[in-house]
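In response to a reviewer's request, we include the raw inputs and outputs for one of the modeled complexes. The three entities were modeled together in a single run.
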Amino acid sequence: MNQILARLFPPQTRRPDEVVIEFGIIFAMLSLVYLLTRLKKWGWLWREWLTSVDHKKIGIMYLVSALLMLFRGGVDALMIRSQLALPNNHLLPVGQYDELFTTHGTIMIFFMAMPFLFALFNVAVPLMIGARDVAFPRLNAVSFWLFAAGAILFNISFVIGGSPNAGWTAYPPLTELRFNPGVGENYYLVSLLIAGIGTTITGINFMTTILRMRAPGMTLMRMPMFVWTVLVTGALIIFAFPPLTIALLLTLLDRLFGSSFFTLGHGGMPMQFVNLFWLFGHPEVYIVVLPAFGIFSEVVPVFSDKKLFGYPAMVGSVLAITILSYIVWVHHFFTMGAGPSVNAFFGVTTMLIAIPTGVKIFNWVLTMWGGRIRFTVAMLWQLAFIPAFLVAGVTGVLLATVPVDYQMHNSYFLIAHFHLALIGGTVFGVLSGMYYWWPKMFGFMLNERQGKWAFWIFVIGFFVTFVPQYMLGFEGMTRRMYTYPPGLGWGALNMVSTIGAFIQGAGFLVLVYNVLWSMRYGERDVTGDPWNGRTLEWSLPSPAPAYNFATIPLVTHRDEWWEMKQSGRANAYKVKSSAIRPVHMPKRSAMPLFMGISFFVLGFGMVFSWWIIAIVGALGVIASLFLSAFDYNDTEELDPQDIRRSEAALGRLEV
Amino acid sequence: MPKRHRAHWAYRLVPLALIVSLLASGCGRQYTLLHPAGPVGQTELNLLVLASVAMAVVVIPVWILLAVVLVRFRDNPRHKGSYVPQWQKSKFFEVMLFVIPLIIVTIIAVPTVRKTYALDTLPQQKDPVVIHVTSLDWKWMFQYPAQHIATVNYIKIPVGVPVLFKLTADSPMNTFWVPQLGGMEYTMPGEVLPLWLEANKPGVYMGRSGQFSGRGFVHMVFQVDAVSHTVFNQWVHHVKTTAPQMSLAKYHALVHFGYAGEESFSSYPAGTFPTTSHGFTLTGSSPMVMP
Amino acid sequence: MSQTLSKLAREQELPLEFADYHESIKITGFWIFLTTDLVLFSCLFATFAVMRYDYANGPTPLHLFHMTPLIVETALLLTSSFTCSLAIYQSRRQNKNGALSWLILTILLGMGFVGTEVHEFVSYVNSGATWHQSGFLSAFFTLVGTHGSHVTFGIFWALTLVAQLVQRGITPRTSRKLYTFALYWHFLDIVWVFIFSFVYLSNMTGGKMV
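The model returned the following C-alpha cells for the whole complex.
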C-alpha cells in the first residue's frame, strides 16, 4: 500500500505550490458537483452535453476545454518566466522547471491550439457548407472524448506520479528509462497517443464532410476559404499523425516493454525518432496555422465589406503550403549532420514556403484596399497578426538559411520565432475566430469595448515578451536553460520579457472577464447576422437550431449569403412551410463518453504499468466498439411539424 | 470616431519604439553572435545580414502599405479611399505577388546553398587539429587523438588553424556550440558528426550545449582558449608530462551522472570513442557508413 | 422529372452499398482511414529500413528467417483475400448464405495466418532472438507484429459481421459494412506483400536490399 502511494505521490509532486493547486482542484470539483446537484442540472448535463453528438455542442465543449488549457499552459509560462527573470534565480527547483517547459509546450500545442481550432471547425464548417451535421457525428463525439481523456490524463500527472520533463519534443535517449525513471514520460506518451487517435478521426471526419456533404451548387471553388483550409488541414492530419503515433509508440515500447528502438546501445537509433517526430512536427505547424489563415480570410472580407481578393491564388497558395510542408521537416535538425546536399535542399524548400505565405498576406491587404474597414475585435486580432507573422516569417527564412541556423538553432532566437508564429498566427487567429463566431455559438455578442482592452493589453505584452527574446538569441542564450549566471548581459532582457509575459497574462484575464461579463449582460444577437456576414452560417438564427437548415440551400455564388442580400432577396432565408421534409438526425449516445473513459482507464494503467487496470480499460474500449457495431438504431427522424413550429417561433416561416 | 483611431495609432507605436531601442542596443559586446572571432562565424554573420536586408526590402514596404490601407479605408464617412466592393482580381498584382517573393528567395537561396557546401569542407591549405568530443551527463570530454591527451570541460586550440571536431555522445543528445567561433552541431550516441571551426584571434570563448539533456543541462558549459601555436605546443607538453592518466575506471566515473570542473589527462584508454557510426562524413559525399 | 428518374435508374445499377447516400459517405471516410493506416505502415517500414543492419551482436536475418512459415503465411493470406472478394460477389447477388460461407472461410484462413505467425514468433523468441536484443529485431517484431494485430482485429470484426448478416440479411448497411471490411482485408494483403518482399526476401539474400 505504501509502495503504491509512493508511486502515486513521489516527492516531486509534494512541493508547496503544487499542494495548493491540488487542493484548489479538489475544491473546484466538489463545488461543481454541489452546484450541479443543487441546481438539479445533472440530467441536463447528461442529455445536452455529455451524450450529445451535435457538432455545435461538441464545438462549444472543445472551446471550453481549450480556454481552460490556455490558462494552465499560461500559468506554466508565467512560472517559467518568473524563474528566468533574474540571473542565478532559484525560485523553482530545477526539476520543476524542466517539468514546466515540457508541460507548457505540450499543452499549448496539443491541448490548446488543436482543440481551439477543432472548436471552430465544429461550430462553423457544417453551417458554412449547408450541411446538417458532420459525416460521422458519433465519431466526432468520440474524437472529443478521446481528446478529453488525453488532456485529463496529461494534466493529472501534475499531482499524481510526476510530470514529464524531457521537453515537448521528448528526444530519446533522454526519455529512455535509465535517464528518465518515473512515470512522467509515460504520461506524455500515452496521453498524446490517445489524443492523437481522436485528432486523426477528426481529420478523417472533416475531410469526408467537406468532400461529400456540401449543399447542392457549392462547388469546390465556391467554398468559403475557411472550409478550404479545414479540408487541407484534414489532409495534413491524416498524413502527419501516423508518424507521431509511431514515434510515440516505439518510445513507449522501449520504456514499458524493453525493445531497443531509440536506446543508447543495443543498436538503437535515436535519430530515427527525431525524423519521425518532425515528419509529424512540421506539418503540425501548418495544421495549426492554416485554419487560422482560413479564419482571417473570412474575417477580412466581412469587416472590409468587400470580396476576398484573389480567391484562386489563395486556394493555390494553401495547396502549395500543404505540399511543401511535407518536404521541409529536416530544417528542424540541420545541425544533425545530414550533409550539405540534404541541408541545402531542405533549406531551399523551406524558403519556398515564404512565397505562398507572402501571397496570402498581400491578398489580405489588397482585400482591405478599397473596402470599408470596421475595427471590430475580430478584425483587430487579424490586423495584429499581419505584422507579427511578417516578423515570424522573416526570422523563419533566416532560420532556413542553413549556415545561419547553425548559430540560431535551439537559441532564444528560435524560441522568439516560433512564439511569434504560433501566437501571432494561431492564437490571434483562434481569438479572432472566437469573437467572430461567438454570436453564432451562443446567441449573444461579446462586449467589443472590453474585447479591445483585452486585445491591446495582450498584444503589447506579446511584443514586449518576445522581441527581447530575439536579442537574447544573439547573445547566445539557449532554450530550456534553468538559470544563467550574471555577467553575460542577459538579465535586463530577460526581465523585460518576464514583464511582457505578465502583461499578456493580464490581457488573458481581461478576456475572461469580457466573456463572463458578456454572458450576463452581453447584447443578444436577434438577427443571426450581426456582422453583415457573407457566408451561409449567417443566414441562420443564432444559435442555429439542432437541424441547422430547415431546407438545404441551393448555392449559386461564392459569397452566397452576401449575394442574396445584395440582390434584394433579404427575406430569402425564410422557409416555405411546404418545402420542409422530414429530417434524419443522429441520436445522442453515451458510447463516445464511455469510450473516452475506457481509454482514460487504459492509459492510466499503462502509465503505471498496472496491467489489471489497463486490461479493464481495454475491455471497455472493446465493449464500446462491439456495442456500436450492433447498434442499428442510431438515427431518428424529426417530424416536419416540429421543424415548422421551431422555425415559426424564430419568425422564419413563410406560410 | 476619428479620435479613437488616432489613439490606437499611438499604442501601435509603443512596440515599435521598443524594437528600435532594443535594436540600437544591439552593438554591445554581449551580443556574441554579432562579434565573431573566426571565419566560420563571420560567414554565418554575413549571410544573416544579407538575408535580413533582402527581406527588409519587402517587409518594410508591406508594413507601410498596411498602415496606409488602414488609414485610407477605415469605415468613416470622411475616409479618402473609394469603395470598390467587387474588386477581387488583378492580373498585374497577382503575378507580381509571386514574382517579388520569388526574387527575394532566390537572392537568399543561392548564397545559402553555396555557403552550406563551403562550410562543410575543411580548408585544404592547412592541416587541421583534430579533437574528439564526447558529451557526458553533464560534462564535456575532449580527446586529442594526435597528441593523445584528454581534457574535461575546457580545450585549448591554436589560432589560425582549422580545428576539426568529431562529435559523439555517451549520454542523451547535446549540441556543441561556441557562438563566437561558429554554429553548433549535435552530439548523438552511436553517431560521429563532424564540425570545423577556426579562431583568428586569441581569446577565451564560452562554449555551451543547445540541446536540453536533463537536470544538469545548464552545467554543460566549457571554455575554448585560443592561443598561439607555440603556447599550444607548450600546453600539450605540459599536460603530457604533469597530468594524470585517464584509466577506464576514471572514464566510467565520468560517464556517471554528475558535474565536473576542468580536468586534464596525459592519456586516455582506447575504445572510448566510436570507430564506426551511422553518421555522415564531413564532405557529405558518402552517406551511411554501415557497421 | 425525367431527370430524377434516370438518376434513380443509374442508382439501381450501383451496388447496394453505394446506392444509399449515407452509406456511401462512410465508404469515402473509410478510404481516408486506410490512407492513415498506410502512412502508419510506411513509417514502420522506414524504421525497419534504417535499422535493418543494427544487429548489435544479435542474430541476423540469415540465421533467423525460414522459408516454410513464410510460404504458409503468404499462401493463407493471399487465398483469404480471394475468398473475401467472393463474399462480396455473393452479397452483390443478394445471396446471403453464399456471402456468409465465403466470409467464414476468410476468417478461418486469417486464423491460420495468425496462428502460423504466432508460432514463428515464438520459435524466434525461444531461440533467444527477443526484441530487446537489437534494433533490427525491435523493428522487425514491431512491423510484422503490427500487421499481425491488424489481421487479428480484422478477424474479430469479421465475426461481428457474420452475426449481423445472420441477424439482418443483406441490407444497404450490412453490405456497406461487408464492403469496408473487404477493403481493409485487401489492404492488409497488400501490406503483407511488401513485408514479404522487403522484410523477408530481400534480407534472406545475404543482407542486401534488392
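As requested, we also summarize the result in words. The radius of gyration of chain C is 20 Å. Residues 38 and 191 of chain C are 8 Å apart (CA to CA).
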